[in-house]
């Protein structure tokens, strides 16, 4: 069969990456915009591989009971596939069932990629932001909309050569214009929909804790024919977004009563309550069964891929004002902010370096006294989507910390790294999956590990 051919298929499962699984004469066909239990009419888009094909849904012939009208009308299945925007690939599914499907993907990755006891490790269901925060900070509005919309405080749009502004169509680099952005905060949506024209490139919209939207222009480099010069995008909105804000403008985010400095163009969690939720999850992971803090103030603790110091602050909060914690981050501006954000703890410091290089050097050069303190400490890592990798895992394990806390944004990378930790002598003792990105396939998780020889 060739791209463009039509098939009527029964959907049997969910796969990593926001796609679902059907089969045709034994061959797997990956398709988005559906869910298990449905029969759909599919147009094939890629038949190059002998092991699997890809397709797109044209029509739902027999809908599953968990299907609902898409929260983003333009992304619904009755819209032509090429006109559906990306970024809300689970928006057609009942929220509770979204979490169940994410849990299935996590369990499959743990078992198949990590070769772990997934049934035991992933016994806890995917939890919402409100469930993590409980009656504490931000709980009143953390999950106020049961449809899981209006949570994005950061949105990236694109400008094509024709001056069109909008998100990319799903699974493409084709810009499509939209009339709404339901996952974004209302202020970002208003600012985004007011953008007109401009140089080809990207436009980032950021709404920090002060509520004012910043608009960051990232035009593509100029070409010999002048691309990247000339008109600039204009932004306007009823609540007055800041136009043309520089990437290195220092903005402030809040977690509880603490402020964190961060560049407007720097990394901060996208969900408006993500930082508070993950801080709570990490704190819970480091609290012992009898309620005692799990951070020894006399040990040495590491926050790897530390950004602006969010988790280093959590570790120091648990351990107390003299807790020795080192945050390691490759971005120099983020490290500069981390140093400012951690100034209240006399034992905290931030270092600029690639984590793989820094941890390898520490493994080679740590003194006996430093090793003893590391062995009583916590290593917290929050790697990018690709994960930490076997080399970093091996170097962490060689330092023999008492506890490892792994904050993950990709279940496959998490499963691979947890498998590597197990091979290096660490067992995962708990895993909390969190639905930080409703209406998308993305899943966050916090895993706690301890040395196998120190269990109990």
TrEMBL record:
The keyword Transcription regulation does not apply. PROSITE patterns: SAM_MT_RNA_M5U (PS51687), TRAM (PS50926). Keywords: Methyltransferase, S-adenosyl-L-methionine, Transferase. One of its GO terms (biological process) is rRNA base methylation. Residues 1-59 form the TRAM domain. Residues 240-253 have a biased composition (Basic and acidic residues). S-adenosyl-L-methionine binds at residues 269, 305, 329, 382. Coiled coil: none annotated. Residues 214-253 are annotated as: Disordered. GO terms for molecular function: rRNA (uridine-C5-)-methyltransferase activity. The active site is at residue 409. InterPro entries: NA-bd_OB-fold, SAM-dependent_MTases_sf, TRAM_dom, U5_MeTrfase_fam. Gene3D superfamilies: 2.40.50.1070, Nucleic acid-binding proteins (2.40.50.140), Vaccinia Virus protein VP39 (3.40.50.150). PANTHER family: RNA M5U METHYLTRANSFERASE, TRNA (URACIL(54)-C(5))-METHYLTRANSFERASE. Belongs to the class I-like SAM-binding methyltransferase superfamily. RNA M5U methyltransferase family. This is TRAM domain-containing protein. It comes from Microbacterium aurantiacum. The lineage of its organism: Bacteria, Bacillati, Actinomycetota, Actinomycetes, Micrococcales.
């Amino acid at each position: 069969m060739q791209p463009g051919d039509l098939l009527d298929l029964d959907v049997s499962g969910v796969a990593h990456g926001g796609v679902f699984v059907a089969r045709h004469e034994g061959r797997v066909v990956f398709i988005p915009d559906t869910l298990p239990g449905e029969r759909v009419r599919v147009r094939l888009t890629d038949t190059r591989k002998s092991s699997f094909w890809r397709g797109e849904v044209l029509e739902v012939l027999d809908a599953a009971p968990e299907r609902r009208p898409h929260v983003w009308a333009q992304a619904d299945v009755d819209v032509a596939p090429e006109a559906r925007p990306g970024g809300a690939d689970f928006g057609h599914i009942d929220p509770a069932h979204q979490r169940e499907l994410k849990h299935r993907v996590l369990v499959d990755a743990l078992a198949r990629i990590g070769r772990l006891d997934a049934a035991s490790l992933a016994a806890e269901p995917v939890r919402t932001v409100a469930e993590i925060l409980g009656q504490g900070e931000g709980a009143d509005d953390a999950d106020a909309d049961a449809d899981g919309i209006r949570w994005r405080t950061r949105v990236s749009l694109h400008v094509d050569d024709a001056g069109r502004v909008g998100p990319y169509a799903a699974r493409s680099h084709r810009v499509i214009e939209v009339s709404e952005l339901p996952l974004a905060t209302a202020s970002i949506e208003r600012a985004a929909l007011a953008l007109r024209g401009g140089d080809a490139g990207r436009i980032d919209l950021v709404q920090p804790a002060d509520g004012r939207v910043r608009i960051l222009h990232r035009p593509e480099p100029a070409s010999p024919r002048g691309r990247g010069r000339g008109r600039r995008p204009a932004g306007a909105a009823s609540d007055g977004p800041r136009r043309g804000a520089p990437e290195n403008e220092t903005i402030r985010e809040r977690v509880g009563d603490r402020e964190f400095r961060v560049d407007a163009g720097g990394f901060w969690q996208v969900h408006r309550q993500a930082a508070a939720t993950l801080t709570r999850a990490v704190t819970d992971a480091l609290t012992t069964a009898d309620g005692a803090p799990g951070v020894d103030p006399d040990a040495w603790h590491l926050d790897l891929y530390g950004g602006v110091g969010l988790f280093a602050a959590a570790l120091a909060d648990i351990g107390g004002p003299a807790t020795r914690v080192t945050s390691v981050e490759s971005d120099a501006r983020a490290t500069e902010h981390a140093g400012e954000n951690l100034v209240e703890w006399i034992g905290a410091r931030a270092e600029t370096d690639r984590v793989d290089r820094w941890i390898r050097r520490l493994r080679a050069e740590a003194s006996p006294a430093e090793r003893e303190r590391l062995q009583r400490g916590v290593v917290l890592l929050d790697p990018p989507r690709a994960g930490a990798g076997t080399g970093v895992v091996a170097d962490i394990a060689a330092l023999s910390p008492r506890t490892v806390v792994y904050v993950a944004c990709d279940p496959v990378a998490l499963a691979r790294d947890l498998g590597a930790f197990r091979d290096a002598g660490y067992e995962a003792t708990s895993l909390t999956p969190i639905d930080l990105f409703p209406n998308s396939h993305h899943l966050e998780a916090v895993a706690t590990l301890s040395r196998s020889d120190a269990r109990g």
